[in-house]
């Protein structure tokens, strides 16, 4: 794709990411729409199996496209094109896969949660800072509700520095943005619980992200 992958945009060689907050949410919306479609509107249900930034491709309008279905599993079938053995990518794999469980849509939801937290913090789940029990899920959880600005990638807020409407209502707008950032982190956390029964489903994720997008577009 013309704009490369989300991996390229997030982790550029210059050390900063030019993706704005709205761009990041729109990208996450695109991925969520794709997962909602393959999980809830396809027969049979499709499981991607390897969701990560390098498999999210961006077009000229920065619209996200989910690519690389090499590990795809078609649930309830014996389709020979489905992957017969799970590999996945370290850092993005659902915990239940490590226990030998079969691929499922909840595995994609878990990977999406990790992806979302990476997009918002610009920290890879395999970064050196994550040792022992510390991970993206935990630092996001510890930041809620009042320390969100300590963990997010502040580069995505630079666009607001030149927005006159934002500056005129600075205090109110900063509060709205912080609330939206907290909601976004909660979505990532809710997609990344150990138990699939506790996870937020992709249809709900799409609804929540749309609500946050609507709020931010009015700032």
Structure, described:
The chain is mainly alpha-helical and 219 residues long. The protein has a single domain, classed as Transferase(Phosphotransferase) domain 1 (Transferase(Phosphotransferase), domain 1), CATH 1.10.510. It contains eight helices and four strands; from the N terminus they run ααββββαααααα. The protein has helices at 6-10, 21-40, 95-98, 105-121, 136-143, 164-168, 170-190, 202-217; strands spanning 46-47, 56-58, 64-66, 73-74. The strands form two sheets. A two-stranded antiparallel sheet has the order 1-4. A two-stranded antiparallel sheet has the order 2-3. A hairpin with a 5-residue loop joins strand 2 and strand 3.
Fold topology:
Elements: H1 6-10, H2 21-40, E1 46-47, E2 56-58, E3 64-66, E4 73-74, H3 95-98, H4 105-121, H5 136-143, H6 164-168, H7 170-190, H8 202-217
Antiparallel strand pairs: 1-4, 2-3
Helix pairs in contact: 2-4, 2-8, 4-7, 7-8
Give a quick rundown of the structure.
With about 220 residues, the protein is mainly alpha-helical. The chain has helices at about 5-10, 20-40, 95-100, 105-120, 135-145, 165-170, 170-190, 200-215; strands at about 45, 55-60, 65, 75.
| Shape category | globular
* Poorly predicted residue ranges: 80-84
CATH superfamily: Transferase(Phosphotransferase) domain 1
CATH class: Mainly Alpha
Count of individual beta strands: 4
Could you spell the SSE succession in H and E letters? HHEEEEHHHHHH
Structural class: mainly alpha
> What value does the average pLDDT take?
88
- Named at the architecture level, the CATH assignment is Orthogonal Bundle
Main sheet properties: 2 strands, antiparallel
- Radius of gyration, whole Å: 17 Å
CATH topology: Transferase(Phosphotransferase), domain 1
Our count of domains comes out at: 1
Task: Report the total helices.
Answer: 8
* N-end to C-end Cα span: 31 Å
Strand order of the largest sheet: 1-4
DSSP helix fraction: 40-55%
Strand content: under 5%
